[in-house]
Each structure stands twice: as structure tokens, then as C-alpha cells.
Amino acid sequence: MAGSIARKDRPAHRCAECGVSVAKWVGQCPQCQAWGSITEASAVRALPGLKSGREGSVPEHPARPLVEVVAERAPRELTGLAEFDRVLGGGLVAGQVVLLAGEPGAGKSTLLNTVAHTMALRNQTGNVLYVSGEESVEQISVRARRIGATAPGVLLAEETDLGCLLGHVEAHDPVLLIVDSVQAVASSAVDGRAGGMAQVQEVTQVLVRVAKSRRMPVLLIGQSTRENAVAGPRAMEHMVDTVLTFEGDKHTSLRLLRAVKNRYGPADEVVCFEQCDDGLREVPDPSDLFRSHRDVPVPGTAVSVAVDGRRAVPAEVQALVSATTSPNPRRGVNGLDTSRVAMLLAVTERAAGIRLDRDVFVATVGGAKLSDPATDLAVCLAVASASWEVAMPADVAVIGEVALSGDIRPVGHLGQRVAEAARLGYTRILVPPGTAKRLGTLPEGARVVELEHLGRALEALAAYSRR
Predict the structure, then answer these.
(1) Alpha helix (H) ranges present in 305-411?
(2) E strands, 249-390, where?
(3) What pLDDT score was predicted for residue 49?
(4) What's residue 113's pLDDT?
(5) Mean of pLDDT values over 135-155
(6) Torsion of CA 257, 263, 265, 270, to 10 degrees
(7) CA-CA distance, 457 to 467, in Å (whole number)?
(8) DSSP E strand stretches across 365-446
(9) β-pairing, 38-44 with 270-276?
(10) 355, 349 in Cβ contact below 8 A?
(11) b/e sequence 311-342, b meaning 16+ C-beta within 10 Å
(12) pTM higher than the cut 0.70
């Protein structure tokens, strides 16, 4: 027969819960297992110029002018936990999907238990649904009672099947959904074990679609690898809106919540929590965590101001230089980069004219992990102070990067660093050259001392010993 027969328009059927398209109407969605959610959309017409079987579909959301979309602001919902809201950029956005990763035992479940409690107290019109695939509701309730997170608006469920989880969402219509953890939930529509690549990707995709369609924020707990990276396919991090990591040393109570990715806020924010017997305590001002407090200064210490994310935090560097009978002196480093400290020791040895053929140990206070080059000057002065038995005055803070030539180079966020040091009572701040000109107005009571070379800084340290 000459010519091709025009294809008839065919109806489209779509699930109102998860958005999956099916060929014909069915009572139960094969994807999310919801009953009565399949609705018929407008007929789909074959597009001209496309091969057989390739047809256009009706857009679920029509295109809108850019100027209209830009004018709208996404409203935020505060969770009631101030530091958690800060790392998100001011609260949760409707339909936002947050992935929280961290090592086992870091306190991820405790943190989200607290978020569920504070969110339920703030929102009296809806419930918070906490679904766990790793613990029973009795185990969750024991922890909730221990930390005092017993708001009546929190609903607990134990589920490992994705369809049943979505059934809970349909039944309760929560204002916030928490899933602990995404690797423990499996979908019957995909083969493979729970936690496998295919299952994790499928579960995340469905939960993201449900969150967007219902404009419901979702908090997912993700297991992590030995390198503290999110376990599972890397595509999972691209599907969610925000990725947070919960870090902390098992031997200390300090926990850092860091934003790695954030579509609705800063992607470099860091907040602090302290793990106590009754849960996690917010630390809005971590200035006292990473420095010692003493009446008389001691040799081998120097205070600097590091910037982690967008927050300036003072950090104390301590050094110890001791005699040794070994032909190969030891070098011990804790909280700093070992190779960078070795370089700074060589620069200090040349600039100060001292021989470091002794054991040298360099560490930070409070378990701080410093990678900011602005702390280089503090490392050099702490080592020289320990070697000469000269104590740095208690009102002196040092900021600057040290090059291989011994030059002290400028660093970023100098104004923020100087302001933080002045706020904490440091009246003399050793800084790179040109700082005063860049800052303009100095904080009240602070005096900056510009030093262009490490040798000048060491001379200033030696002068303190003669006063």
C-alpha cells in the first residue's frame, strides 16, 4: 500500500505519586505500589519526522518565562535546630532532598532524631515520619527518650520495602520524611540486594520524584566508606539537592557537619556539635574548642585563625622539640599535613639558624584538622618557640602563609580573620605585608604587625623573650 498509515493517537497514563508512565490503566502502580494513583493524561500524538516507536509525550510541567520564575523566591521551613538550618542555608526548601553521610557511630541517627523532634514541635499541623530500615521502632524510641526527642508529632515506622514506605507517606502525608538509611530500603521492581548499585539508585530516584511532586522535604541517611565518602553509586549524590557529611573523631566529642553540595545555599558551610550523654549539643561559637586557656604562656604554642568553609575559627598549634640519641630524629604530626610540616621545618631551620637534629612533634589542640595555609606561620613560630624555650605572649595571634623562600604571603579572608582574632582579645596580630591597606579600618583595640619574611617574625619572637 502506497504511503504510510498514520498512527492513531494513544492515551497516556501516569502515576500521580511517583510519576512513572504505563501503557494502560491499572489499579495499582507497578513502581510505587500505590492504589488508585494512575490517571489518564492527554493523548500523545506521534511527532513528524521521528522514526516509528519514538513519540513525544505531554509535558508534565509547561514551560514558563524566565522572568516569572526568577521573581519567585523558594520559601524555607526552619527545622528548629539553628546550626542544622545554618548549614542548609537558612532551613529546608519544599521538595528538597538532603543526603546525610558519615561513619558508623558518628551520630547521624541521633542528629536526625533531634531534627524530627524540633520540626514536629514547630509544625503543629502535620507529622514528621521517621522510617528506619536498620532499627526497630523500640530501639528508636529508646534513643529518643535518652536525648529527650519525644515530640508527639513524630511517627515511627520500620520498613525495608520501598512500596510499603511510600504507603506510609500516602497514609500520613508528613511535612518531613526521614529515611534511615537509603541503603537499607529495596524496591521490588529492581533485581539485586538492598544496598546494591541498582537498588540504591532506584530507591533514591523514586524518593526524589515523590519529594518533588508532593513538595515534601526528605532527609536520607547514607552509609559511608572508609574514606568518609558516600557509599553507593556516585549518581546518587547528583540526584539529591544537598549532601552533608557528619565527621568526628571517635576519641573526641566534637562533630562537624559540613555541606559538600547544596543547590539552595552555600556549599562550604561548616557547623559544630558536641556529643553528650543526652544527645548532640549545638556549638554556635566554636572559638574555645581549638585553643587552650592558661594564665601563663608556655613555650611551643602559637595561635592562628583558620577559615573552614565560611567561618573563621581560631586554632592553636603546639610544638615540642626534645633531645634524642637516635641518628634519625623522629617527626610526629597530628592534625596537620605531614609533608607540609616537613617543608615548614626546613624553612624554619634555615631562617632561624637552628639545627633541628632532635625529635620534633607538632599537633593541634582539640582534634582540629588544619589544611589552611594561613596557619603556616603559627607552625614555624611554635617550633622556634619550643626550640628556644621562648613563650609567645598571650595576646599575640599570627596569620600568614610561608613560602619556601621564607616570605610571608597574603591569604584570603584576612579581614574576617583579623576581626575574629580581635574579638577574642588578641591585641597584636602578626600578618602578611599590605594587610592594613587592604583592611582599611581595623577592629577597635587591635594592632596589626606586618612582616614580610619569616626571619622578621623570628626576630620579633626573640625580642619577646628579652622583655
Answers:
(1) 338-352, 376-388
(2) 254-262, 270-276, 279-283, 301-308, 311-322, 331-334, 359-364
(3) 55
(4) 95
(5) 94
(6) 20
(7) 16
(8) 396-398, 401-402, 408-409, 428-431
(9) unpaired
(10) yes
(11) bbbbbbbbbbbeeeeeeeeeeebebbeeebbe
(12) yes
Confidence (pLDDT) at 48: 58
The residue count of the chain comes to 467
Under 8 Å CB-to-CB from 216, ≥6 apart: which residues?
94, 95, 169, 174, 175, 176, 177, 210
From residue 330, give the alpha-carbon distance in Å to each of 316, 342, 363. Answer: 22, 11, 14
Residue appearing with cell numbers 611551643? 300
- Res 127 pLDDT > 50: yes
Residues 17, 35: contact at Cβ < 8 Å?
Answer: no
Whose cell is 500505590? That residue is 34
pLDDT confidence of residue 17: 67
Residue with the three cell numbers 556549638:
283
Cell numbers that stand for 268 in this block: 562550604
The reported pLDDT for the residue numbered 104 is 84
pLDDT in tens, 204-260: 999 999 999 999 999 999 887 666 566 666 778 889 999 999 988 777 788 889 999
- The DSSP code sequence of 146-189 is HHT---TTEEEEE--BHHHHHHHHHHH--SEEEEE-GGG-B-TT
